[in-house]
From TrEMBL, chain A:
Organism: Lacticaseibacillus chiayiensis
Cofactor section: pyridoxal 5'-phosphate
Domain Aminotransferase class V: 15-383
Any GO MF annotation of the entry: cysteine desulfurase activity
Catalytic activity from the UniProt record: (sulfur carrier)-H + L-cysteine = (sulfur carrier)-SH + L-alanine
Protein name: cysteine desulfurase
Keywords, in A-Z order: Pyridoxal phosphate, Transferase
Gene3D superfamilies: Aspartate Aminotransferase, domain 1, Type I PLP-dependent aspartate aminotransferase-like (Major domain)
EC class of the enzyme, as a word: transferase
TrEMBL record, chain B:
PANTHER family per record: IRON-SULFUR CLUSTER ASSEMBLY ENZYME NIFU HOMOLOG (PTHR10093)
Protein name: SUF system NifU family Fe-S cluster assembly protein
Residue ranges constituting the NIF system FeS cluster assembly NifU N-terminal domain according to the UniProt record: 9-128
InterPro entries named among the record's database cross-references: NIF_FeS_clus_asmbl_NifU_N (IPR002871)
Organismal lineage: Bacteria, Bacillati, Bacillota, Bacilli, Lactobacillales
Record organism: Lacticaseibacillus chiayiensis
GO process annotations (BP): iron-sulfur cluster assembly
Superkingdom field: Bacteria
GO molecular function term, any single one: iron-sulfur cluster binding
Family named by the database record: Belongs to the NifU family.
Amino acid sequence: MREQFPFFKAHPNLVYLDTAATSQKPQALLDSLQNYYINDNANVHRGLYKLAYDTTEAYESVRQQVADFLHAQSAEEIIFTHGTTDSLNLVASAFGPHAVPTGGRIVVSGAEHHSNFIPWQQLAKRQQATFVVTPVHSDGTVDVPALLAAITPGTNLVAIAQVTNVAGDTLPVAKIVKKAHDMGAFVVVDGAQAVAHMSVDVQALGADFYAFSGHKIYGPTGIGALYGRADLLAKMPPIQFGGEMISEVRDQGSTWADGPIKYEAGTPHIAGVIGMGAALHWFQENVDAAALQVEHELANQLRTALRAIPDLTVYGNDDSLATVSFNLTGIHPHDVATFLDEQQIAIRAGHHCAQPLMARLGIPATVRASFGIYNNQDDVTKLVEAVQAARRYFHGID
Amino acid sequence: MALTKLDQMYRAVILDEAQHPRHHGVLADFDHEITVRNPSCGDVLHLQISEKDGRVNDVAFSGNGCTISQASASLMTDQILDKTPAEIEQMVETFSDLIIKGDVPDADRLGDAAVLKGVHQFPARIKCATLAWKAAAQVLTEKGKTDD
Ligand SMILES: Cc1ncc(COP(=O)(O)O)c(C=O)c1O
């Protein structure tokens, strides 16, 4: 698996444990980008020559591919965006005012990434709506019963991660959607940390909207998608205007194209779309349930080994998929990160764009190690040894 | 071997300084007050300064952050005592230069705080080291404006 990632040839001694921030890229993706720019580069949806037609076909075929990947009903439900953040902002701006009336109610979990938090907080302000942030457990996982209880009659919208990015817990999305729908609320799901670690079926989940980023599933940066249920997209106006997205433009008024391209004004990130298609294809060919299970077991091995270290707190639990957050008592995560970096171990330290969660846990930051399909036992061993060494170093123990 | 670079930055004095910071706490009486943040990492620093006859005569900081930011705040608060705002502004400039370049001719004016120069080998940590100093320069020139 690792041989398919040229990054590891460039960095043979690096222990890369920051896939939750962004994944490394397989050769298959790099080949597709190069092939696109060498052989297929043309703008989409406008040229009449064959090359432009073929590129448009390739671009649109990725829409179908993403629809299949998410088990959506049709490609018409897939909008290309810059990534998760862009997707969530699009729903909040374009569909938000339709979903949440003045004085309405929005519920989010206390463990959301800022991308799935601030757009809703700001929408709540605009709509003078109540913005409810639900409790978390002391290990950083979402308190699901409390979240369900917060979805009361009068709730208009619920925004949750399928997999959280600090504790790595998986939320029971189908159950949450059922409760929300019973109360008449829409559900927006942030899939950024889910898609690379589990199979996703938006219809089985019942999600109204589902967002993800290409770069977290071995694809390029700057590209992602938003799934929106067809009947809801029919009610969602475009918020960006320009080329491609129109049906007809007159001096005093315009009408919009049908389907998802009405949300894709301007020349899109064509190479990104093609690359994301190549990455998803590579993923589906190379990463099966067994490989994902290995990844999860590595995370659990790490959790077990870390729990044996004195004065160390591990967040999340053994159901958490591929993300392990922890803190050494009395040692700031940034100091740990610098120490580990000196040993060629790349982990993330900080608030992970989840300040509301940090506030609930009463900590400024955590150290976070996250796994990808290329990690192995050796990575776990090296990290655990280095964490033990960091503890000795900063506590002055020899 | 890898640790020599680390040792240069975290020399015992810095670890010790962070664990036993000077001027940590709050002042009952002060002329300037500011809260600054390092948004990328969540460090928060609250700084209070009292002035007498145009010189800093008391100072305190609180908040949370890594070893580097805490040690730096501790050293900074100690070094600005009895200095005028103009002198402090110059010190802050010298300090920023030192942390970025690793050496500057007028490092002497920083006193003990010059031990932080090892940070220059860790570009990702420069902001941790300069947070407290920039806060001091800002609050003394903007006369006590807080950022939130
Ligand atoms: C849970 C979660 N949501 C949203 C995002 C934002 O993704 P992006 O930066 O690709 O838009 C991330 C990643 O940083 C994430 O982990």
